Amino acid sequence: xxxxxxxxxxxxxxxxxxxxxxxxxxxxxxxxxxxxxxxxxxxxxxxxxxxxxxxxxxxxxxxxxxxxxxxxxxxxxxxxxxxxxxxxxxxxxxxxxxxxxxxxxxxxxxxxxxxxxxxxxxxxxxxxxxxxxxxxxxxxxxxxxxxxxxxxxxxxxxxxxxxxxxxxxxxxx
DNA sequence: TCCAATATTATGC
DNA sequence: GCATAATATTGGA
Length: 173
Hints:
Helix content: 25-40%
Structural class: alpha+beta
Shape: globular
Number of strands: 5
Number of helices: 6
Strand order of the largest sheet: 1-2-3
Order of helices and strands: EEEHHHEHHEH
Radius of gyration: 16 Å
Strand content: 5-15%
């Protein structure tokens, strides 16, 4: 694996208030690089007093709009730029596939693995999904286990169920 | 370089 | 249904 590690780049953390709580978006100079579910930590104000560059403010507006749509189960048409350079090649390949899953549709871990060309990499796919830095916008919640079973979710299974129900996806479990 | 851990899946009991 | 083996990738010792 060839991951070039640079000195810590500058980043900005900005909160997004939704009806489901306050999310926390993280930006690098290249784009959106992280999104956190509401928690005690995201309640604290992060971007207080720091100057926000104009492009990042624009990305953030887009992110906030997208997040509202995603939480409402509506399809997202336009994304802010993503900075996925923190992930490995394999992970970025998986995340790319996830972005292509239409709203209301689901894939199994095995199907994602087949898209990658290696049917046996199902387990690695699950691992890559768990490492997804931008849940909801990169719809890792649309990846289920076989037979429409829920599988797992890094942000908590309640979130996964809630998101899928709002998109009209029916689960077995 | 090796080893344990994983958001899996297919198979056998 | 539950236990188990097979399998790819990752991160840490």
